[in-house]
Amino acid sequence: MQNMFIGKGNLGSSPELKRLTGKNGDFVVATMRVMFARWGQNAEGAVEQVGGFWREVEIYGEKAEACAKHLRKGARVLVIGEEREFMAKDEDGNEVQVIKVSADDVALQLSRIESITFAPARSREEATA
Length: 129
Hints:
This protein is mainly beta. Helices cover about 10% and strands about 55% of the residues.
């Protein structure tokens, strides 16, 4: 990997799954926008967000299908892959530089879940009443 990328961020939208046909047959790709925040300390020493950046993340194959099935907007994810830069044209026809991440792995980060509450099991009498 030439431009290795590792980052934790939040999904800006749910992943979009596309089925494509290429030279080597059919394949699937999931595309998602992820916000990667930058954190720092303020004058009082408290940690706060000091910036961030958006990246379009693509992942292929079975992992793409799993992302589309399990991830939703707002989910905290860990992305490992490679950054790729290329030139594209915007709506006005101007050349713009685009940076995407071609992911090898996208993992759901459960650190944002503060608590999970389970309902107590009900007895058979309560279930039939």
